[in-house]
Amino acid sequence: MPFVIDVDPVAFRLFGLDLRWYGIVIAVAAATALWVAQREARRRGIAPGIIGDAALWVGGAALVGGRVLYVIQNELGTLASDPAHVAMVWMGGLSFYGALGGALLALAVIARQQGLRLAVLLDVAAPAAAIGQAIGHLGCLISGDSYGVPTALPWAVVYTNPNAVAPLGIGLHPTQAYEAILLGALFVGLWLGRARLAPLGDGTVAGAYLLGLAAVRFGLFFLRDEPSVLLGLKTAQLIGLAVAGLAIVLFVSARRTARPLQIHRPQLEVSQP
To answer: Could you say which of 27, 53, 121, 143 is the most buried, measured as most Cβ atoms within 10 Å of its Cβ?
Structure first.
């Protein structure tokens, strides 16, 4: 029996504005990602204050990039009648790859300003991005954004609230939940394995994150109700191939900073005659 979601995407009104569950969940995701990034920065000897200051710029750039790419992909027609719609982030609708592009650009600028290696900063940000994205998709699940194709599977979700983004009364693949679970697992893998990846060179953790992200989203977008644009692939899948290429570049460049493994051999005691 499918899971019925009858939740109004608008949590409550404040000073005449609709505050949506999507925005609330995104705020929780951002706070969690910041906490994770500060912990990893401290472990790597980077002042947590740098991460706190950088978070404002990275968050702003991610928000702008995510919203702009989402509107370009899904709501260009709306801009003709209401150009201000592009700024209505509280209405929901962010493209993760757009957010990723904005965040990477901001991190590159911050690394240059702070005299840090960009690869190191990317390694600090990678686990934080994974857990933040995993939590953020729960907001999509509530609002019905990023919904999947119809299915009769017993774990399908059916939206019944008239304000939901998804089609009403139809069993759909809960692709938002799939992505939240898989990216949560990616975070666990990165967090537990980051110390072992470090000797392979700066940027290896970020490369693992980008490769895992691209693989997860490439597979899941076969279940997303979006049109194909080239060779049967959807826009996000094509972008994902480029992201996987970037991951490979990080792996290759990481070899320049790889540290040899320390092999401890037992010393033999030689008895004196």
So the answer is: 143
